[in-house]
Amino acid sequence: MREVHLNQARAEREKFYKHGRKSNMTKSIKENKTWWKYSSVIIDGMTQWTTRLPHFRRMPSYLDRKDFLDVHNMGSIIENVGRFMDFNYANYGDDANFLLNVLHRDVTRIQEHRRKGDGEEPYPMPEVLYVQLDNVGTNKSIMLLAYISWLVMSGAFKKVKVNFLIVGHTHENIDQMFSRFSVRLKRKLAMTLDEMMEIAKECFSDGIFTTAVAKVHDLKTWFGGRYENVCGISTQQTFKAFKNEAGEVVVQYKMYSTDKKWLPEEGLKVLNCMPENLPDFVKPKAFSKEGLTKLEDLVDGMRTILSTTFTPTHEAWWAELLRKQRKLTEEGIFEEPNVPFVLPSKLHARLNAPLVHALEAPLRLAEAQMPAAAEIPARIQERVERAPIAVYTGKRKAVNRAARKAEAYVANPVWEVSFDQMTVNSYAVCFGEITGVKANDVCQFRVKLNGKEWSDPLMLVRVHARIVYAKELKYKYLKVKTYTDTKERRLGKVLAGKAGAFWENASDTPSTEPFKSAEILLAWNIAANEAKGCIPEEQYGQLIVALLAQRAKKRRIDNGQMEETEGDEDNSENEGNEEVPTCPDRSRPDQRCKDLDDGSDVEM
User: Fold this and answer.
1) What is the 3-state secondary structure (H, E, C) of 106-151?
2) Cα(62)–Cα(121) distance, integer angstroms
3) pLDDT one-digit tens code per residue, 74-101
4) What is the pTM for the complete model shown?
């Protein structure tokens, strides 16, 4: 299994390299590819602990780094364009909105580079954008899907594809860029952000572009109310936005980039319409008065400790920073230049066809001479062919451990209760309103599904007899002794597990009813030395999973993601059997329910 996982990680990484080769002019021409159609960018963030200001080669023992100024560094590498580092203070959160601002700046950088071209003639605008991101929660968001849909809807690209490497295997060339910067910082003293950006430019001989981010556009509010609530995207590794045959911009996904089929076939419509006007700016978080006081004390400490090393230039830089931050804290005014939101150019920009042919012609090869594409190894194909997890639009629902178990049992018929498993003296939990029973309400109870939600009414029964030819059972409904909440008929795990939590009235006559697995969630036998009249802890946990599985399967059927199957041929009246995946106790083979048919029609 470990080898399969590593092979899948290598395949995902190779896909990223392939996108880079297609976007790189030299490598693409060697592989007989039309490089100008593609553009590739990888984005990642650097740890803030390394880039705090001021930065010392050797940290003075009488300064506390907790009081330093946090600086966040977001890096980007764009094929054919260059390396970029965007620096900002801790006023802006490292969230999905900030990531989209970085990606939008990279899009404008790509198009600006294409407009410059070779200095005389422009390069064609790319038709396809490949984006490689780190596999973290802030990157996988509905906002990202809305933004790439907007890029296609606005005509900037024909297709935008986003890839995420497998968790634990995300170290790439951009991490090497951060590593060189970190090593260089260890040898340098940086008192201001300007000095830190100059150090970054010294890390690579071919150069690097640095930017101090003054303002962040509020893309979240800009897209607000115009996109659908998409759920279940955290388990997918690849997304793409494009226009379907009807001209609508839709999003498809794959569990892995090596999967052959994109899901769903019709695509998900994430963005409903184009946003109006231009986005506003995000109001930065203000420093607390205590935080500003600590920064002032830090400046006084540097002035005293560093003496001549702390120059008037440093003094002026910190004084201006404190003035702006104090005005933001006390008056709510943020003094920064107005940064316009640049709309990306459309694809119908003038193409430089002669330049493209001149670059590609010398190394263009005939298709017959091209090597055949490598096949996906069988060990990876086995991993690829497993059933994908569906993505849907609608209200988001939290998934806990029990719910994940339920999803695994949804399509597994092994967990469904059959007539043969219901033996004399076995217990079963039924759900739904049971008619024809006196004092029906005293037999009902509810169990807790999660922190706030309780199940529908349930009942605990004991089998007294089996009528084999008619597939009928004789039950006695056990009454609940004590409730957690009498009015709501709630019964918690602790009360349900105590011996005698349920009691059986000896004077009651067993109720004869046809067997319907759709009404039975769980069935189990108990050993002679085990407590009677209760739901054991193990069965209580299985009951929760069965309830969640039943609800999950019903939701999938309602969404058209699963098709109902017919029941057994010998159980034609068992309609809806597949809707209730249940969890009988199979942990003890000697306690499994068995058919005790001794040849008679009625078993007692």
Assistant:
1) HHHHHHHHHHHCCCCCCCCCCCEEEEEECCCCCCCCHHHHHHHHHH
2) 58
3) 999 998 888 999 998 888 877 888 899 9
4) 0.61
